[in-house]
């Protein structure tokens, strides 16, 4: 604990004790006459303690005064109240006084610290002498017990000085500090080096810093560190440790930031003076014996790795070591010295570290000749003759003669080309990687990458992708000048590349090997030109160097990326090629990821279509409209489904929601849809149909997945439609009456696939003409956006406003409201089925005519009626389509895996434009059941499962072949308890004919569906 802190605590204790004694005396006499003097104790403690401690004494005295008055006869009388007000007012003034005193003392300490540091710097002739004096000045005036200075040594921080007033007690932390070395971002000083600004820790013992434990043992707690700055950046860090826990002080943080710059300026100035002293010593030697001193100076400087030059007062070069000759591109020292500086600089383009032109008069050597002591400058030189680039930190110091005039300027060129090039390469790789991962649109990604490459990496950057026929598709071209881009595109149109060329992008794509052209001689242009005009145009571009790298993924070359230098004169080398190859690999991986995404998206969209009805049937006297919108980015199958189909003379409407997304949800959706269809065909009631689905799900072991279903049977009557409804865990459908009233239909039931005996109940209702029945999934009411969700009450209100509208208008209003509530980005699927009883029989709707819409959310949307082929390589199935007499034959070979039924449905979806929607729906249902049976019972083995579909004008024939031993076909009258045979029940009900026959050593199940 510091001395001021001890004094403050002692003052607090004495004030509390004094006030207590005074109150005790007053309590004995019981006259409350000593209340007034209590006001002096807050003022006494305010002279030494903090505002918080003063406030404690003030409140304590006020409490004593209140208590003394209470036990006397003067309680809350005028004299007592006046005394209380006096103590309260005096206490507040004492707190303000303490705060002002504390602020003044802290300000005084800061000013004293700044004065002491400045005095230490002025009185120190060297950096070594200044370090401990600076630490002592700060520690003594700011009440710190330990300090250390760390200085940058390459890529590490090393301790160069420590200080403490009690060396024996603080020896452990001193030793630990001297032994440690920190990289940027490591430890307390490393974090300050990385941040470039002060850092305050209230209690270092509670931190995870490397010296936290030894600091705690040394009874050090609060810690402050700040950077030592120069114009070129952070060169060191000062850290200070206090014996007590300390809260951050903004004014002190600002003050030490200024001190850091002051110390840094001193360190830099002393080092420059030290360098100048060495040069002056050399100059003294030169005056003693010019020839001998020159020889000694040259011997010293020739051994220096950095380039060193000396300029006379007129700016002419008078000396250059071998390293400077290499930097400036000269063979001999005399040749360089004889070259005027203006002509010398004409050989270069000079830029600052940001790539902007660097004025020659701002070079440190030029400023040193005017008597300045310029800060170091980071400069990029590009040699015009060769295109070579070098980065240097240029330092310069003036040398003065006896009269104080500038006699010469000494320039030092520290070559940092390797470091800066690696920095630029890493920055480009980082920015390119961000661009490549920002989108799954490969062409837009590649356009962003080529724009990043120009002009820092190359003057031109081009990407060509390989086409199946060997030709090249130009997908990206970048240059700083848009007119040059237009010229290049026109050149390509007039002289398109030939796929068989032995050099260039086509060859790189074929071989997978890069090509590097450090120089592009005119002979190479002549060799590549088609005619004289072509050669003339190529020469006008002024190409200097080039490299072409493949875009590779999984061993395949998907395209090529070409980098070309022109006007800049940049020359590509092996390091440049390594960077380009890395970009090519990353771009190839991005292209492959986009392709895989497209394949998955196509499969998911196709599978989604196969799980929904291909078309809405015509329901006599009833308008039917649906909406479906799947969530996600296009590569997962949604969990919502619906179906409307005939059931004898009745009609069945189903809507459901399966737990989860993806392939597992798709399998469960297929199971639910086909089981419910089978139950309807068997004449089961809605409750029995949901019970059968529950049994099927439990038997399938769906890994805890469940689903919700609303199932209704519709029967036409003269007065309208009678509906029998059962609901298993699903939102209850809504009935919109003709008069605008809205009511729920059905009774809530339990989830399906969870318990053996679900609670589901049949409920009946009547729909009159003009009434509508709305089925929906929870995505309609629960999708949440910035404005909340639509909710059940909001949906009911919305439906109420739809009185008199058509089924399609109602479905559209519900979909629009759900999307608006979610902000256009639904987190769950949306499915809506609206059935409205018409004014007369015959009103109906079909898919493609407006009322039935299926969409995907996200960046990709799909038209359900589209039948685009899958991307190359999509799926596990191998298929082919061949023409047969009077029709077509579709053959498919599937692996004997659980995904076989899904793959079959996806592949058969390409028949969408060849078959009637209802017929395709039945065909996909039946192929799912037969393939599933083959995988489970037919021992498909390595041969897998064969599927053949033959189309003719009269019928569709389906054959499924596996290695099983077969079975005897026969009629299936009912579903029983679903123990087995329910798939064959569907076959028996839907097929015109069906049977089995031997197929080699296996069995073939065949069936025919009549075409209307």
Query: Could you give the distance between the termini?
Result: 99 Å
Indicate how many domains the architecture comprises.
6
The pLDDT mean sits at 81
Low-confidence stretches: 840-886, 976-980
**SS strand fraction:** 15-25%
What general outline do the C-alpha atoms trace? flat
- Which CATH top level class of the largest domain fits? Alpha Beta
What's the SSE blueprint?
Layout: H1 3-29, H2 40-46, H3 51-70, H4 78-123, H5 127-142, E1 146-153, E2 156-163, H6 171-179, E3 181-182, H7 187-195, E4 199-201, H8 212-217, E5 223-230, E6 233-241, H9 250-288, H10 290-302, E7 307-311, E8 317-320, H11 322-328, H12 333-337, H13 341-345, E9 348-352, H14 364-368, E10 377-383, E11 389-400, E12 406-415, H15 417-438, H16 442-453, E13 460-466, E14 472-478, H17 482-494, H18 505-511, E15 515-517, H19 522-528, H20 532-541, E16 545-553, E17 556-565, H21 574-610, E18 622-630, E19 640-647, E20 650-658, H22 662-681, H23 686-700, E21 707-717, E22 720-728, E23 734-736, E24 742-744, E25 763-768, E26 772-776, H24 778-782, E27 784-785, E28 788-789, H25 791-800, H26 807-821, E29 830-837, E30 852-856, E31 878-884, E32 887-894, H27 900-908, H28 917-937, E33 945-951, E34 955-962, H29 982-990, E35 993-999, E36 1002-1010
Parallel strand pairs: 18-30
Antiparallel strand pairs: 1-2, 1-6, 2-3, 4-5, 5-6, 7-8, 7-12, 9-10, 10-11, 11-12, 13-14, 13-17, 15-16, 16-17, 18-29, 19-20, 20-21, 21-22, 22-25, 23-24, 23-26, 26-29, 27-28, 31-32, 32-33, 33-34, 34-36, 35-36
């Amino acid at each position: 604990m510091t001395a001021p802190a001890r004094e403050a605590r002692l003052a607090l204790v004495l004030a509390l004790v004094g006030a207590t004694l005074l109150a005790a005396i007053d309590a004995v006499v019981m006259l409350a006459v000593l209340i007034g003097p209590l006001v002096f104790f807050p003022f006494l403690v305010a002279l030494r303690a903090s505002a918080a401690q003063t406030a404690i004494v003030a409140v304590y005295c006020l409490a004593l005064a209140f208590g003394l008055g209470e036990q006397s006869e003067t309680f809350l009388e005028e004299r007592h109240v006046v005394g209380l007000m006096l103590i309260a007012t005096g206490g507040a003034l004492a707190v303000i006084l303490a705060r002002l005193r504390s602020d003044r003392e802290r300000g005084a300490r800061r000013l004293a610290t700044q004065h002491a540091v400045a005095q230490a710097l002025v009185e120190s002739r060297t950096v070594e002498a200044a370090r401990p004096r600076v630490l002592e000045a700060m520690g003594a005036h700011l009440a710190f017990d330990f300090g250390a200075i760390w200085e940058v040594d390459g890529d590490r921080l090393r301790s160069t000085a420590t200080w403490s007033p009690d060396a024996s007690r603080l020896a452990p932390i001193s030793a630990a500090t001297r032994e440690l070395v920190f990289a940027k971002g490591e430890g307390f000083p490393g974090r300050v080096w990385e941040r470039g600004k002060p850092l305050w820790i209230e209690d270092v013992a509670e931190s995870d810093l490397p010296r936290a434990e030894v600091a705690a043992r040394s009874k050090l707690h609060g810690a402050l560190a700040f950077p030592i700055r120069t114009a070129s950046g952070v060169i060191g860090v000062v850290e200070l440790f206090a014996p007590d826990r300390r809260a951050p002080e903004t004014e002190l943080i600002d003050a030490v930031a200024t001190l850091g710059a002051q110390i840094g300026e001193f360190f830099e100035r002393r080092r420059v003076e030290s360098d100048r002293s060495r040069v002056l010593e050399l100059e003294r030697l030169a005056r003693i014996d010019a020839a001998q001193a020159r020889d000694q100076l040259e011997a010293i400087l020739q051994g220096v790795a950095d380039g060193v030059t000396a300029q006379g007062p007129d700016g002419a070069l008078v000396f250059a070591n071998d390293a400077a000759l290499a930097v400036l591109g000269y063979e001999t020292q005399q040749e360089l010295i004889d070259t005027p500086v203006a002509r010398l600089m004409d050989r270069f383009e000079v830029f600052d570290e940001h790539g902007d032109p660097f004025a020659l008069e701002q070079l440190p050597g030029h400023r040193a000749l005017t008597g300045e002591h310029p800060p170091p400058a980071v400069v990029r030189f590009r040699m015009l003759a060769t295109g070579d680039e070098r980065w240097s930190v240029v330092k310069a110091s003036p040398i003065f003669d006896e009269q104080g005039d500038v006699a010469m300027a000494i320039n030092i060129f520290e070559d940092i080309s390797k470091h800066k090039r690696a920095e630029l390469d890493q920055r480009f790789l980082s920015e390119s990687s961000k661009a490549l991962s920002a989108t799954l649109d490969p062409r837009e990604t590649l356009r962003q990458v080529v724009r990043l490459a120009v002009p820092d990496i190359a003057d031109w950057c081009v990407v060509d992708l390989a086409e199946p026929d060997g030709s090249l598709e130009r997908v990206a071209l970048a240059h700083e000048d848009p007119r040059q881009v237009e010229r290049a595109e026109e050149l390509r149109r007039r002289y398109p590349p030939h796929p068989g060329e032995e050099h260039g992008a086509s060859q790189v794509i074929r071989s997978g090997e890069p090509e590097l052209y450090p120089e592009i001689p005119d002979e190479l242009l002549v060799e590549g030109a088609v005619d004289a005009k072509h050669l003339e145009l190529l020469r006008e571009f002024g190409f200097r160097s080039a490299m072409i790298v493949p875009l590779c993924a999984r061993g395949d070359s998907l395209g090529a990326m070409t980098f070309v230098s022109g006007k800049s004169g940049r020359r590509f080398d092996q390091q440049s090629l390594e960077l380009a190859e890395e970009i090519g690999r990353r771009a190839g991986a991005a292209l492959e990821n986009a392709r895989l995404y497209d394949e998955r998206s196509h499969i998911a969209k196709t599978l989604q279509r196969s799980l929904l009805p291909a078309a809405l049937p015509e329901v006599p006297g009833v308008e039917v409209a649906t909406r479906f919108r799947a969530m996600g980015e296009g590569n997962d199958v949604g969990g919502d489904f619906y179906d409307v189909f005939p059931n004898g003379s009745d009609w069945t409407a189903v809507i459901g929601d399966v737990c989860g997304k993806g392939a597992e949800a798709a399998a469960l959706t297929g199971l639910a849809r086909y089981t419910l269809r089978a139950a309807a065909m068997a004449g089961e009631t809605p409750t029995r149909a949901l019970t059968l689905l529950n049994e099927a799900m439990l038997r399938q072991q769906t890994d805890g997945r469940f689903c919700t279903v609303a199932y209704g049977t519709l029967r036409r009557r003269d007065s309208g439609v009678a509906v029998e409804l059962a609901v298993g865990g699903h939102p209850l459908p809504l009935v919109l009456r003709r008069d605008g009233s809205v009511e729920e239909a059905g009774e809530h039931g339990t989830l399906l696939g969870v318990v053996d005996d679900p609670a589901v109940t049949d409920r009946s209702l009547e729909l009159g003409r003009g009434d509508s029945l709305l089925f929906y999934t929870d995505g309609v009411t629960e999708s949440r956006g910035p404005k909340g969700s639509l909710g059940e009450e909001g949906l009911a209100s919305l439906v109420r406003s739809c009185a008199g509208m058509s089924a399609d208008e109602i479905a559209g209003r519900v979909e629009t409201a759900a999307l608006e509530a979610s902000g256009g980005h639904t987190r769950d699927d949306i499915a809506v089925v609206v059935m409205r009883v018409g004014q007369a029989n015959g009103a109906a709707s079909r898919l493609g005519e407006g009322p039935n819409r299926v969409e995907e959310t996200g960046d990709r949307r799909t038209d359900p009626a589209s039948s685009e082929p899958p991307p190359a390589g999509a799926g596990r199935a191998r298929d082919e389509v061949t023409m047969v007499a009077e029709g077509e034959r579709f053959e498919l070979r599937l692996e004997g895996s659980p995904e076989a039924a899904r793959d079959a449905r996806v592949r058969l979806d390409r028949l969408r434009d060849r078959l009637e929607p209802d017929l395709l729906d039945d065909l996909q249902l039946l192929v799912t059941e037969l393939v599933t049976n083959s995988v489970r019972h037919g021992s498909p083995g390595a041969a897998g499962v064969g599927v053949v579909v033959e189309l003719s004008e009269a019928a569709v024939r389906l054959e499924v072949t596996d290695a099983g031993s077969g079975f005897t076909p026969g009629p299936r009258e009912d579903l029983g308890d679903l123990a087995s045979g329910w798939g064959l029940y569907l076959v028996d009900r839907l097929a015109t004919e069906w049977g089995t026959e031997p197929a080699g050593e296996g069995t073939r199940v065949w069936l025919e569906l009549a075409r209307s």
